[in-house]
Amino acid sequence: MEVFSESTIQALCLGFRYLLLFFFSFFFSKIFSLFWLSPVAVRRQLRRSGFDGPPPTFPLGNLTEMYKKVDVEIEAPVACISHNIHSTVFPYFARWRKTYGKVFIYWLGTEPFLYIADPEFLKKVSSAGLGKKWGKPNVFKNDRKPMFGNGLIMVDGDDWTHNRHIIAPAFSTTNLNAMFGMMVDSTTTMLDGWSKFMSMGIHEMDVEKEITRNAAEIIAKTSFGISEENGKKVFEKLQAMQSMLFKSNRLVGVPFSKILSPKKSYKAWMLGKEIDELLLEIINSRMEENSESSNGQQDLLGLLLARNDYKKMKRTERKLSSRVLVDECKTFFFGGHETTALALTWTLLLLGLYPEWQKALREEIKEVSGGEPLNSDMLAKLTKMEWVWNEILRLYSPAPNVQRQAKENVVVGEVTIPKGTNMWIDVVGMHHDPTLWGDDVNEFKPERFKDSINGGCKHRMGFVPFGFGGRICIGRNLTLMEYKIVLSLILCKFSISISPTYVHSPEIMLSLRPSQGVPLILHPLE
Ligand code: HEM
């Protein structure tokens, strides 16, 4: 018996075809609108507001020009080290600035970015961005997910306010002082290793590697109470992921770019998963113990876990999920060691280059400590060291840029920045701008910070190594303390000079790093 007549079946097939056609048209029109029409509308609006920039192509935006190979002259070692690094690390920005000025639009794929190297404009943006108008760019949240997840550095809105409020007490003076001993111990162990090498006649070493490992150990112990062995595992995997995600040019902002490099995306995802599992194990065992760290003070993980204790929670508060806990740990593990290690590494390089400053710092340490072991009160008196610290953060800012995204239309002075527009604040560009700092902008002159916390910069927003506004770096006091401890201990034990094998070629790999390491020659002091 026939259930459907032939004509009914034909009508059903036709209907199905129309449905499919409708579905595909709808899907493609959505994609077209999302990745083409909306960006074009944003571009028109920005141009109407007076922002120009290099013309983008679809779907790469300006990536082709950004990734164009430039003949970077690997600088001659040591004798010709120049601190004029902006056009080396951001050649495309240096080029575009000549044509379009210090504020212009460029495109990462189909994502509009407002490039900013004008502190006055940044000031206006910053004061217009109170509340929740500015957040972190979705394109980076997605791209850097395996690295930071929804940790403090990436999260926005109420979640950011909530998490920052919980985390801030971990950086109180009491907690920082309690970390002092651990920082000294880790560093002393590292330096004992250096002394052993020297007793075997080995005087040259790549200090970047050593300092980075030490900084990772310090953050693992002080913030999470993690054993050296577990800390090392997390550290190695994070390093592998960083190199995978940021070492080569990628199609950030290009629609479906992850599908275009499936192997890389899969590897990054796998590494992210392995780190998450390791951290989850650590979190669970801390939960079983007690939310207090072993030495009685509340470290970062202790605070996060205590916050999750039902007995201490307010009725309106939400519990932090395991996902959030893992993401915060990842964020702090990475953010907490890499930048500090780089600041120290660049410092050692420059102290090798300017022995008069090495001598001045050594004398200051001697004067402040009177030959006694360092303590936290002494650190505050190391003022010349603080000038050097600031000058390093100016010339070789470990965080070379800061980004934001307009979460709604934002009025900045006379212009409206449309919702969805990203901002790229070129920290290196501002720190090397002669109109802000004078003709000696590319010289190493720590004394410029002697009488001014801004180093004599003509605009207070021209020096922003730790970002600005409410989202200023939460770890800035911790990092300065670690910097002073590690540097003091090194300078008291060794003299530093630069190895003739050193090649000066700073590169951006998320942070600003020496691409070929920093081989130094060390000698024990009498
Ligand atoms: C020389 C060392 C450091 C530099 C140059 C540095 C730089 C920065 C910058 C520029 C920002 C602002 C990012 C933005 O606004 O988008 C930031 C935020 C942050 N930093 Fe640091 N940082 C350093 C050390 C540290 C340390 C030691 C930690 C942790 C122990 C840390 C944790 C964070 C976190 C969690 C944020 C996000 C804060 C928020 O959005 O509320 N940083 N850092």
Describe the structure.
Strand 1 and strand 2 form a beta hairpin. The termini are far apart. Helix 11 packs antiparallel against helix 13 and helix 13 crosses helix 15 (322-353). The strands form 4 sheets. Strands 1-2-8-5-3 form a 5-stranded mixed β-sheet. With 526 residues, it is an alpha+beta fold. The model is unreliable at 293-297 (pLDDT under 50). The protein has helices at 6-48, 63-66, 86-89, 91-100, 119-128, 138-143, 145-148, 157-167, 173-199, 207-224, 228-246, 257-260, 262-289, 300-307, 322-353, 355-369, 376-379, 383-395, 427-431, 434-437, 476-493, and strands at residues 103-108, 111-116, 134-135, 204-206, 401-406, 410-412, 415-417, 422-426, 494-498, 506-509, 511-514, 519-524. The chain has 21 helices and 12 strands. The chain is globular. It binds protoporphyrin IX containing FE. Protoporphyrin IX containing FE binds at residues 152-153, 164, 331-332, 335-336, 339-340, 343, 398-399, 402, 465-467, 471, 473-475, 478-479. This is Cytochrome P450. One of its GO terms (molecular function) is iron ion binding. One of its GO terms (cellular component) is membrane. It comes from Dendrobium chrysotoxum. InterPro entries: Cyt_P450, Cyt_P450_CS, Cyt_P450_E_grp-I, Cyt_P450_sf, Cytochrome_P450_Monooxygen.
